[in-house]
Please model this.
Amino acid sequence: MSLIITFFFALLVCWFISFPTVWLLKVFRVGQNIRQEGPISHLIKSGTPTMGGISIILTILIFIVVLINIDIAIRYLALILLFLSYAGIGFADDVLKIRKRQNLGLTARQKFILQIVFASIFLIVLIYEGHNTSVSGALKYLHFDSPWMYFPLALFVIVGGANAVNLTDGLDGLAASTLFIAFSAFAFIAYQMQLADPSIIAATAAGAALAFLWFNVYPAEVFMGDMGSMSLGVLLSGLAVILHKELVFAVIGGVFVLEALSVIIQVGSYRMFRKKIFMMSPLHHHFELMGIPEPLVVLLFVVAALIFASLGIWVSVYI
Model:
């Protein structure tokens, strides 16, 4: 019951914070620049306020300060610092895009290096605590309890998860709705594992993401921005690592995985064969160009996210 209360309070707090946030973004004209190579229908969205994810970030921070005792559990302090560091990377990316007046912020290499550095610091803290020795099931059987095996696996989950969520943030309400579902699934799993702190963090993030949909659903009044999608992506993958649900994350985050795979396949196919597999990547743009209306594409992805989350909760008992 307390977890449900946390969820609804987070929803209300984020909802109230979002009103002044959106107003300020409009006043200061913090508008999104749409990439020219994207769907033509998206050009009308140019100038829509971005960096709205700051309201979600503030909500999560407020609830963590109030409800989580980070002085005792250093891993949660490390998780919050990881969350804030990725928010900082996204913030820099968003600001550069606004200043340049085009959809080009930090380079892919710059973002990747920064992501690797901050994720590595987080994992060093966990491994220093002996987190890798508590793996079980398939990971233990495959000797991922060794720090030399666990580190690259967890690094891939964290960095890959953050970027996969970031790629998903391309349609109105898509990232927020799928993140709401994924965080809700992890809140349930953490609750079943009787781990209070991860369940509180996940429930708070789920409530905040759902509240943000009020402003982000089609037609979006504000965009989440890289600041929001990147930080929420790393918070989700970081929780998966802390819960030792690294493999389950690939199931619950099935929509994010498919989005990332579509980009990898598209780029790889074009570089090797000069042929495109999809009309456009990430995958949601492919469906748009098939003539499916944007809200319907989002709805289809939400249904898929619900199926993946349900499957992930089921398999979490076994892996």
